[in-house]
Amino acid sequence: MASLEVYDIEKNKVAELELDDRVFGAPVNEDIMYEVVTMQMARRRQGTASTKGRSDVSGGGKKPWRQKGTGRARAGTTRSPIWRGGGIVFGPKPRDYSFKISKKVRKAALRSALSMKMKENRVLILKDFTMEEIKTKKFREIMDRFELTKALFVMDKDNDAVDRSSRNIRDVKMMRAEGINVYDILKYDTLVLLEPSVKTIEGALLS
Which residues lie below 8 Å from residue 182, measured CB to CB, with a gap of 6+? Predict the structure, then answer.
């Protein structure tokens, strides 16, 4: 089993934590990570784009000119798609873009993403993260101490002070361990895990 050093928020080493190789040392499968990220992005699409066809636009009940003898093309309605103000051909209609992927594949993709971060040495484990008051400046000092720029913090429980202190800092996201996903793991440069959240993640991905 691989192990990582555990730090407090003052950057003092306080322990070492063994990580399960089945979660943090699994083979990296880029194909399934791509599939799961595509699924996540598809689910976020609103699918509300809509256009009007020739039967939906107003007007067009009268033939604009007689069929023959004018020297112009034959036209039966001004709502034809070739006319300005006419209907749209094959335009988008409201639809649901989401699709499903099996739980087994989603878990495998999460293991791949976590293992990739581990191999890139972009995983940091903190003993805890407590703040008595809401202070963005203090949160920024902690990030600077660990040289973090774009980080995903995975917490074991809600902490309102920490959450609100990080809210105005760009490229920082706070997340509960139950909500980790492939897209966010890949999006952020560094994955910051609180020690209790590691066991939560391992338990969920090995069940």
Answer: 33, 36, 37, 40, 106, 109, 110, 112, 113
Do 39 and 68 lie in one domain? The reply is no
**Once rounded to an integer, what is the mean pLDDT over residues 160-169?**
93
Q: Based on the structure, what is the number of domains in the chain?
A: 2
Residues 109 and 159 grouped into a single domain: yes
Cα dihedral: 177, 181, 183, 186 (round 10)? 60
186 lies in the same domain as 87: no
55-99 residue pLDDT tens: 999 987 889 999 999 999 999 999 999 999 999 999 999 999 999
- Residues 57 and 42 occupy one common structural domain: no
* CATH code, domain carrying 107: 3.40.1370.10
Asked if 127 and 169 sit in the same domain, the reply is yes
DSSP 79: T
Q: Are 115 and 88 in contact (CB under 8 A)?
A: no
d(C-alpha 31, C-alpha 28), whole Å: 9
What contacts 179, CB < 8 A, 6 or more positions away? none
The per-residue pLDDT for range 15-37, each reduced to its tens digit, is: 999 999 999 999 999 999 999 99
163: its two tokens = 């959450």
The pLDDT tens digits of the residues spanning 123-149 come to 999 999 888 899 999 999 999 999 999
